Amino acid sequence: PPAHSRNDWIGPPDKHSNLRPVIFYVPPEESSLERRLREARQEAQACDQRFWARHNRAFRQEKEEFIYSRLKAKGLEMRDETGQKATLNAEEMADFYKDFLSKNFRKHMQYNRDWYKRNFTITFLMGQVALARALRWLRWKKKNVGN
């Protein structure tokens, strides 16, 4: 981002996690509370990035293995005679999706619990930062109205 920017910058989706990375704006006079909020947001982003990159990698690998095993059971190759990648029908793929979700249910539940904890903390910190800024503005206004 340009040096004069006063906003967070959102990047293109990451090729592994499909999440859009954020470059967080750091104000020149960031308070310790604002820093805690920014760091909590950065840590949440890093946790999400790690989880979804691992999850998507496992999903792609297991999907390929599933397709390969089903095609092999039918006596087919991964590519047809024209060189096109062979596929399975929607019903066959539904079996894979159901099994994958069932197998990863606990991981998803743990991720969701952690996500809610992190985001509750972020929301609480955002409230504290908003209150601190409002109080700072009121003190500034009171000081300047008296002059």
Describe this structure in words.
There is one protein chain. By secondary structure, the protein is mainly α. A two-stranded antiparallel ribbon has the order 1-2. Helix 1 runs antiparallel to helix 3.
Can you describe this structure in just a few lines?
Helix content is 66%, strand content 3%.
Sum up the structure in keywords.
single chain; 147 residues; mainly alpha; 3 helices; 2 strands; 66% helix
Question: Considering DSSP H and I runs of 4 or more, what fraction of the residues is helical?
Answer: 55-70%
Radius of gyration: 24 Å
Return the string of H and E elements.
EEHHH
Side by side, the strands of the main sheet go: 1-2
Poorly predicted runs are none
Beta-strand content estimate? under 5%
Mean pLDDT: 93
Q: Count of helices?
A: 3
Major sheet details? 2 strands, antiparallel
Distance between the termini: 39 Å
Broad structural category: mainly alpha
Shape descriptor: elongated
Number of strands: 2
